[in-house]
Amino acid sequence: MNPRRKSRLKVVLSVLLGLSVAAGLTLYALSQNIDLFYTPSEIVNGKNDDPKQKPEVGQRIRVGGMVVEDTVKRDDKTLKVVFDLNDVGPSITVEYEGILPDLFREGQGIVAQGVLIEPTRLKATEVLAKHDENYMPPELGDKLKDQHKKSGVSEQDLKGESETDRKMKAEAEAEAQKANMQGETK
Known about the structure:
Blueprint: H1 3-32, E1 36-38, H2 40-45, E2 60-67, E3 73-74, E4 80-86, E5 91-97, E6 109-118, E7 121-129, H3 138-150, H4 155-158, H5 163-185
Parallel strand pairs: 1-2, 5-7
Antiparallel strand pairs: 2-4, 2-6, 3-4, 4-5, 6-7
């Protein structure tokens, strides 16, 4: 092989080796900062009920679920709060020290981000409260109600109980009663 080609080949191979090392180090650094999302059931049982896919103690994760009623315990002297979180299955305990969001309350959906310190205990560094998708600021709600009144839409119509629905429901009930009466006479 020509010495010139050898030197070019060495340069190309060293550049490729350098790029692959840089890509590997970048991926390794990013993998240390990934916060995987779990539900309380997935933490206890593993993702897809596979015990091999449980998060490890010391792993940074995000957990989403509902705050269990009557489990919120606050420390009087500090901002430390301990509460249980669940979805449709088992619960986990969340420890958090700091100011909770205004929307945080029992029975409310939240997302907690932190480190798993025991198999079912999370030390949260951040707690985010989810709000209802149907939330509407009061001012906007009042304006919409005024607009609906002007256009002839009633409160019952807004709740999904239109006049047509009520008539159809009354007719169905009348037919059911008529069928019951006919069944009793036979």
